């Protein structure tokens, strides 16, 4: 009953109600009042039903008002500096249903940050920016050592104002079975603080074990902060989890809690996965805190995903990224001095490391995740491997993959063999033909569901993170990732890709969807950028 009432008074229900009213008015006027109005206009039947005349007048008034609103919104859409694929759906629906689309646009049209979120984000930047060594835009400390990869690192550095780090140790975990034991053992070593941020936390073996360790650490005086996405965890853990954990001294918060109001904030989910333990280690990647990620339970065959552990100064990037979203939860700026003032050890490991965060509509007025993938593809001269569970990207990203293949780069794209969402999977397949025609190699990971979001170019420039090849990750969600260059773990990452390909099914060159499927996907692609 609670769930029914919540849905009944939700913004989505009200939008549906407005749509039905608009459609009902159109149908009623079109099929029942046309003759009546015509008679009045021709003065053939003055003694017509006055109620019908009133309804017709109200309908005409609504159409005039909606037309005026539609014109205003139309110019707002046109004036926005964003890709045509975001503008075209709004324009199409505005022409079909002006009133309904105008309301939807006012709620969801701005896929960037809310004003109050922007204030917190800007305040967070001021709080941490002076802790990172920033070079002038025209001259970079690591320009020579990074070579052609400098542009990719500098792009992120200039936008996020986080640092580029050397002498960090990076450990690669190619599956949940490797990650969770290291994660729990790391928690047991905590002495000062533990920061945890996940999109999904699910009741089960892994979460139960983590909870027990966290309760023990909180009792020992360790500061424990947890944030998780409210909609991501809908039905996976108790709604009272924050209240329960606070009894043990654990600061737990839901990110953008669901409330029955009209708000586009429901699109801005926290899709990040970050764990920070003191200044000793930090974990990030694509794995959520749920049993299927450890293959303790089977949902869609074998669940393939990855994480990295970072030791060294790059941990500060993840501390700043975590506190950014934590600040949004508590609506105040954290004390950065306590967490960022630390002298990290220097490891002998080779390479460069740069963790970063991305967010709705470009949290820093740029789509960092999309452009990072594009930069990695443009960097490649020999080969590039990409893994993603979903393939509904922006046209620019899709075209960059195609162009890389056309210029002679071996482009290998790995998708799930067993999907978690069949309709989304069909939409992914609708993009195969465009890529196959350019020579892109597409593989389906036959053991099960490939949830891994990683890329590596020429065996030396890589990415491990949370960012999918879809509009939700690229545009709407809070995301994070780690850019790597010539690290000791790069061979392991490339070998992992090759091992995945060895157990995957290659899509044949003559692959083609049925006409009905193509038409359905074309319709779905029209609205996919909006939500």
Layout of helices and strands, plus pairs?
Elements: H1 2-8, H2 11-41, H3 50-79, H4 84-96, H5 98-108, H6 115-128, H7 143-146, H8 150-160, E1 165-166, E2 169-173, H9 176-188, E3 193-198, H10 205-219, E4 223-229, H11 241-246, E5 251-255, E6 274-277, E7 281-285, E8 302-304, E9 307-311, H12 315-330, H13 336-340, E10 352-358, H14 368-379, E11 383-387, E12 391-392, H15 395-406, E13 410-416, H16 422-429, H17 432-436, E14 441-445, E15 448-450, E16 454-457, E17 461-465, E18 469-470, H18 471-476, E19 479-485, H19 490-502, E20 504-506, H20 515-527
Parallel strand pairs: 3-4, 4-5, 8-15, 11-13, 12-18, 13-14
Antiparallel strand pairs: 1-10, 2-9, 3-6, 6-7, 7-9, 10-19, 11-16, 14-20, 16-17, 17-19
Helix pairs in contact: 2-3, 2-5, 3-4, 3-5, 4-5, 6-12, 8-14, 9-10, 14-15
Give an overview of the whole structure.
- It is a single chain.
- The strands form four sheets. This protein has a nine-stranded mixed beta sheet with strand order 1-10-19-17-16-11-13-14-20, sandwiched between helices. A seven-stranded mixed beta sheet has the order 2-9-7-6-3-4-5, with helices on both faces. The protein has a two-stranded parallel sheet with strand order 8-15.
- A hairpin with a 3-residue loop joins strand 16 and strand 17.
- It is globular and about 85 Å long.
- The two termini are 27 Å apart.
- About 1% of the residues have low confidence.
- The chain is of the alpha/beta class and 531 residues long.
């Amino acid at each position: 009953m609670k769930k029914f009432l919540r849905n009944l008074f939700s913004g989505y229900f009200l939008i549906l109600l407005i749509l039905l009213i608009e459609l009902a008015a159109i149908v009623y006027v079109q099929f029942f009042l046309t003759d009546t109005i015509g008679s009045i206009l021709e003065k053939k039947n003055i003694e017509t039903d006055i109620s019908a005349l009133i309804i017709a007048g109200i309908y005409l008034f609504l159409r005039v008002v909606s037309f005026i609103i539609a014109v205003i919104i139309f110019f707002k859409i046109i004036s926005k500096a964003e890709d045509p694929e975001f503008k075209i759906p709004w324009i199409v629906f505005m022409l079909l249903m002006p009133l309904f689309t105008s309301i939807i646009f006012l709620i969801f049209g701005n896929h960037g940050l809310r004003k109050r979120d922007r204030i917190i984000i800007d305040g967070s930047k001021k709080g941490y920016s002076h802790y990172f060594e920033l070079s002038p835009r025209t001259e970079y400390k690591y320009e020579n050592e990074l070579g052609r990869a400098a542009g990719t690192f500098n792009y992120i550095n200039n936008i996020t104002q986080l640092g580029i780090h050397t002498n960090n140790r990076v450990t690669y975990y190619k599956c949940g079975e490797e990650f969770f034991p290291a994660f729990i053992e790391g928690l047991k070593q905590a002495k000062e603080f533990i920061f945890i941020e996940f999109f999904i936390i699910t009741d089960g073996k892994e979460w139960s074990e983590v909870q027990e360790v966290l309760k023990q650490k909180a009792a020992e005086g360790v500061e424990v902060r947890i944030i998780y996405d409210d909609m991501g965890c809908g039905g996976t853990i108790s709604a009272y989890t924050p209240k329960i954990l606070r009894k043990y001294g654990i600061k737990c918060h839901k990110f953008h809690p669901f409330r029955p109001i009209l708000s586009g904030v429901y699109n801005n989910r926290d899709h990040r996965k970050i764990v920070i333990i003191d200044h000793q280690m930090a974990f990030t990647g694509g794995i959520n805190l749920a049993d299927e990620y450890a293959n303790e339970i089977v949902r869609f065959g074998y669940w393939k995903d990855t994480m990295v552990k970072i030791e060294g100064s790059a941990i500060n990037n993840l501390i700043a990224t975590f506190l950014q979203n934590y600040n949004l939860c508590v609506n105040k700026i954290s004390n950065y001095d306590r967490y960022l003032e630390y002298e990290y050890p220097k490891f002998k490991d080779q390479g460069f490391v740069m963790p970063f965060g991305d967010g709705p509509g470009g949290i820093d007025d740029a789509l960092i995740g999309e452009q990072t993938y594009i930069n990695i593809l443009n960097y490649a001269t020999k080969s590039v491997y990409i893994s993603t569970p979903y393939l509904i990207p922006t046209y620019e990203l899709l075209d960059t993959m195609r162009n890389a293949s056309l210029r002679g780069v071996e482009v290998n794209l790995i998708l799930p063999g067993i999907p978690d969402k069949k309709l989304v999977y069909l939409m992914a397949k609708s993009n195969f033909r465009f890529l196959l025609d350019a020579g892109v190699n597409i593989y389906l990971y036959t053991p099960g569901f490939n949830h891994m979001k990683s890329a590596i170019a020429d065996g030396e420039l890589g990415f491990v993170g949370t960012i999918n090849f879809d509009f939700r990750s690229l545009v709407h969600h809070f995301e994070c990732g780690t850019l790597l260059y010539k690290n000791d773990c790069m061979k392991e990452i490339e070998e992992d890709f090759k091992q995945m390909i060895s157990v995957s099914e290659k899509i044949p060159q003559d692959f083609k969807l049925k006409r009905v499927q193509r038409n359905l996907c074309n319709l779905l692609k029209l609205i996919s950028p909006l939500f």
